[in-house]
Hints:
The chain is built from two helices and 14 strands.
Amino acid sequence: MKKSAIALGVLGLFSGLVSAQSSVTLYGVVDVAVERVKGATSLTRVTSGQQQGSRWGLRGTEDLGGGLKAMFVLESGFNADAGTLGQGGRLFGRQGYVGLGGGWGAVRLGRQYTPMDDIASIIGTKTYDVLSVVPIIGNGDYNRVDNALTYVSPTVANTVFQLQYSLGEERVSTNTSKDFAKQFSAHALYANGPLTAGISLMQVTDADGVLAGKQGRDAVLLAGAYDFGSFKLSAYYDAE
């Protein structure tokens, strides 16, 4: 079998922890609550992630000189009420990527949030606001994607641009759904004082991994918010 690859690696992030030019941060959130759910049937339960998803992670950077730095993020979600892994049992299901950055921006490879999810986060103040108020593909099945290549621009006129391409499940060419989960997305995010606004586009090549052929899905999201201090006013428009 013939293989060709472009590899991006980070060396010495762990061996060089004592260097002043390197840093690794351990962070996390543990969110557990008792809640009462009422409907056709009622339930009192202890739940994890009621306000924010429980997680722990490692975030690191290393100065490579010449304005270039290496970076990585490994973030694991878990259910604190039961002690189980989140995101379907993945070890680093929230994020797991490595990258290089400089004055030209940054390039990241691995499991990452999508540009559309970043725009969706403008809406609301809690995690579940984003998950329920903006129920579009970029903030549902595709709020995070595997095997992604992402470019994040430097800030230009208070605006950050992001481009992302995901290789999906990387199925062989003979598979009837070989393009499953492949997606391209982009956003422009403006932030200046109390005003935040953004637009994002997403195109999923094949959203169904069982049916033969391509079942494509497209989406657009426009969101904005203004923070008055005592309250925040936000609005959005989305379409598929």
